[in-house]
Amino acid sequence: MNLHRALTSLTLFLLPLLIHPARKGAFASVNENQIQAITSYVDPLINPCDDYYRYACGNWANVHSNEQYYEVTSLMDHKVNKRLIDYFQNYQLEGSSEAGNETYTDKLFLYYQTCRRTKSLQLKRYLQLVRPSSHLDWQLMLEVREPNATWPAERFNWLFTLAKLRRYNFKGAFIEHILLLDVDNDSNRYLIDLDKPTDKLADEIVIAALLIELGVERARAIDVAKQLHKFEERLLILRDIADKRGPQSISLSKLKDEMPEVPWQLYLQLVLSYTLTEDYEVQINNREYFRALNKVLENTEPSLIDNYIMVKFALFLMKDSADNFTKMDCMWDVRKKMELAVNFLYKQQFYGGSDAKYIADVERIFNLTRREFSARLKNNRMKLLPNQLEFLQSKLSAMRFNIGNLPASADERFIDKYYADVHIDPNNYHKNQLLLLKLRSRKEHDQLTAPAPSPSDYYFISDGDSCTPYFLFPKNLVIIPYAFLQPPAYHVNMHDIMKMGIFGFVLTHEIMHGFEYSGVRFDSSGITDWLGKSILSEDEFVSGFECLSYPKTDSLDERAADFMGIRVAYDTLFHPNSSMNARQPSFTDITPRRLFFLNVAQFFCGNLQPTFYEHDADDVRLRQTLKQFEAFTLEYECKPGDAMFVEKRCELY
């Protein structure tokens, strides 16, 4: 063992003893447990002014080397999954699928159970259940089943096939069809947005392996994979066609006149199962792409188009399914497919009578951070005009939060009704997955005709893939998943310093999304406003974002939210007139400010992943956030020349 590892091991052994000299009994407080975890991750041989990430998180991977999670958010997801697995361990069905009277908890259990019973994914089953049309098989599947049969190409229509697959939430081939809120006119109204897709086809070797698994002969599979990639190259050229007009609303009637070769009205009728009037408006992007696409497809063999769509659909289903059908994989799959039911169950089973206490405490933190940011706005560092300031204050005042992404009026009857048409087949995971994908797509499209819910009854139809809070621009709303209301992020009995480290910082980060470059243009009701747009051109705002863009990042809005979030969370806690408890805690000798920064770091600790979706890497985010923050450099006495010190600090608001 080298000297560094020996000293680290000794420190990890001694730190808990030094910090908890009088701790007795088996049940340590939530604060003591958090301190023990934090200190176990610290690498004391690293100077915090040289690299705060390595200092605060250097031993995270060692401590969790045998775990199934790789960072703090996946740790919290793991804990949620474990709770739900334990809940269903001895679950007894309340109804029966034969009688059609299953409760929503029955359906959760049955879907989990069918997932656990599945040994491996059978892609062929999906393609048997969902075909291009009711009277047409996939070309390659027919070839596998009947090698000498002739595939009836005249029956194939690529647009109608995509319409059918869109009912299973598939939107990745030729057309990107999503629903958006109308932020230019009415943030309660949904629009169908039609655009070119952005995802790319998998590598040739992946496609060939997929086709071989489906039963295609090896040489043929390799040949088809090459054909599909050549076809993809042609499609990528089309995607590079410039969009001169941007997104525009247009009636189906005018779209028909402008693009008669693409029967959009019939496509949407097949997706929705009802007919939209000709004056119904959709939003379309990249018109020239669609015109060029139609010409390319007219001169492409229907069998090649069919194979392309089939492969992309199969890849979509693979990505959407459980990974290995372990307990954890299956529970994660249940959470993604039946998010509303899981959230309601989680609230009922694991919060119960303490729900009001959590809500009140979250509301306290939410209101205090908004008050602190409001004071910053009043100081008007950016020299905004009075009407611009009023615009921002109004938006901040109207901002709301939703715990658990549930409508306020949700009860068991509401949840049961939501899943009324779902009858889980206890022996067919593939069929159940398709059934739930279809439900998700239908519920999403139901929003086109449903009356707008009250603000308190709004919930976001998501893919259930986030355990951290997120901000919805068109609703001026912060969603706080139940998974985030647990240690290490939060506990109602945590000291305020501990709460503000992860939970307070992340919550404030989300609030700040309403005031960064992408978010500031929306008003308090979620509509794009000229006053918000005018702030984008103010000198101080522009210079602040130009400063933050160095070093270069593709996630400037996220960096700005980090930049502001740390300051507002810190000042909410440590402001001389703050009502929060920022005094030295009795459970540790770590000073309050250092304790706050160590807690903030916990959100970023983990085994650094090769890619980060819409964010810089976690170590980069932590370093950039703290080196720009004067309070941090003062607390740790960082000096010019230290890596965690910058001479020129950026400023916003």
Automatic annotation (TrEMBL):
GO terms for molecular function: metal ion binding; metalloendopeptidase activity. It comes from Bactrocera dorsalis (Oriental fruit fly). This is Membrane metallo-endopeptidase-like 1. SUPFAM superfamilies: Metalloproteases ('zincins'), catalytic domain. It is a single-pass type II membrane protein. Pfam families: Peptidase_M13 (PF01431), Peptidase_M13_N (PF05649). GO terms for cellular component: plasma membrane. Gene3D superfamilies: Collagenase (Catalytic Domain), Neutral endopeptidase , domain2. PROSITE patterns: NEPRILYSIN. Residues 475-652 form the Peptidase M13 C-terminal domain. Belongs to the peptidase M13 family. InterPro entries: MetalloPept_cat_dom_sf, Peptidase_M13, Peptidase_M13_C, Peptidase_M13_dom_2, Peptidase_M13_N. It is found in: Cell membrane. It comes from the Eukaryota. Keywords: Hydrolase, Metal-binding, Metalloprotease, Protease, Signal, Zinc. GO terms for biological process: protein processing. Residues 48-404 form the Peptidase M13 N-terminal domain. Its cofactor is Zn(2+). Its main location: membrane. Residues 1-24 form the signal peptide.
